[in-house]
Amino acid sequence: xxxxxxxxxxxxxxxxxxxxxxxxxxxxxxxxxxxxxxxxxxxxxxxxxxxxxxxxxxxxxxxxxxxxxxxxxxxxxxxxxxxxxxxxxxxxxxxxxxxxxxxxxxxxxxxxxxxxxxxxxxxxxxxxxxxxxxxxxxxxxxxxxxxxxxxxxxxxxxxxxxxxxxxxxxxxxxxxxxxxxxxxxxxxxxxxxxxxxxxxxxxxxxxxxxxxxxxxxxxxxxxxxxxxxxxxxxxxxxxxxxxxxxxxxxxxxxxxxxxxxxxxxxxxxxxxxxxxxxxxxxxxxxxxxxxxxxxxxxxxxxxxxxxxxxxxxxxxxxxxxxxxxxxxxxxxxxxxxxxxxxxxx
Length: 345
Known about the structure:
This protein is mainly α and 345 residues long. The chain has helices at 3-22, 26-44, 50-81, 92-106, 114-120, 124-131, 136-145, 151-170, 175-194, 198-222, 227-230, 233-236, 238-252, 260-272, 276-301, 324-335, 340-344. The longest helix is centred in the first third of the chain and has 32 residues, at 50-81.
């Protein structure tokens, strides 16, 4: 991609998200979302492949529909209440439409079908942007409107997302689709706590961003697009194999890694709120996700790829990909559990 075009796209991505996160007027927030969408669409379709074009079209149509619903809900609310303030969404119909629209933006079940397909048609770097940076603007709107959104709808979507993310991820062999369903499951955990404790939501979101960035950075460095590709990672970089394994276990929420911390706090808070059945279902659904993380871990670290003796090793070409994102996010993704007393105090 032309460096100038690339700079414009990255600047637009940043600008759109920041405008949405800092605005209090619905029109400004909507404009930020649209700028964000229009910036990422050409990034998805850079490969000029039918699959990339299809993914870009799916992403554009989904996000355009969600943005239209956000505009419709805010207009309906403004018509009823006379204000365009984001925090003053008091009309029940507007709140319901807004919840559906934001769920579509994020990729929550049952509005999640676009996410795995779009990620599969994108490059690993673009997939990382979609699953991390592109979640910030809708999350900011959820933060600002959470007092007016229906907790029951959020709980239902959260539980479904966690379960569907786990179930659907079991059957995948493509790493991008696995990460898509991982994203859906993690979004479920965020939504279940959103209306109860926004401080835990913030922490969960930050840790999700760190772990997902670390995982995608590992996949980008090892050029692993399928589970079979991960089997040959050890020939290129044994250290990368170990960090990938640990990051996967952290994504699965195993102690004593960072990923255990948000799930622990969320389950504790749900129990405190006397939501025992929801807590149990969320805990059980995390086992589904853990299964495919463990399967990917097993294939990465403990399995040799099916090949002949002559092709035992990959050529060890020096990677041209920057390793800085991986270096920064991996320690955070693995070693933050000891700071829990600081967070909860």
